[in-house]
Amino acid sequence: MTSDYAIDAKCCGLDCRNPLYNALAAVIGCRLILVRQRTYTLSKSAAMRRAFKTVVIGSVLAAGCAKERAPFQSPLIGEWQLTSYRLPDSSGGAHPWWDDKPAGLIIYTEAGFMSAQLYDTRRPSVGVRWDSVSADAARTQFAGLTTYYGTYVLDTLAHTVTHTVQGAMSPDWVGRKLVRGYRFISPNEVELRVITDANGRPTSVGPVLVWRRAPSPNER
């Protein structure tokens, strides 16, 4: 304690060798210690207030940024009805894959799942239970449909959507990535061009499908 007081007294210009001065230094030292402690406390409180203001301001700014930066939402989300299914030919034209009135529905969910069903409307009725049809009838039915489901990833720079198959009419498709180029003809009409076929191989003459956003059943 004496050395601390002596240091404080020396700082005040006192002679620490004199007992009277030492006593006076003790009083001054105590006051200096109290002043230092109070200054430290005030400084600490001010620092805490500044830190609190920084946190509050940062939280407000972060909340504002979160509101401005809404999460990306795929423009494909929703239900789409097939209106055209055509195959390009060597002359630069295209002809129907099945006929001029294909039926189909493709669905993209916000969670990243998709499902597609396409049918040739010319398929004849089989007239019996599905598990009792003949081999020829089953072949005709099978050749007139395309169905699968899975997940999808949208690439807005390349304008492609990749379907990863999880289940399909053909077990061979499971696990394959089917890439489609997309182009919006209008806000409610999109063209999907087949870039990789059902075997996952790239193709430059893949079918081109046009889909129109399906109206709600209550709006029909």
TrEMBL record:
Chain ranges of the Lipocalin-like domain: 77-214
Organism superkingdom: Bacteria
UniProt xrefs under InterPro entries: Lipocalin-like (IPR024311)
Name of the protein: Lipocalin-like domain-containing protein
Species, as recorded: Gemmatimonas phototrophica
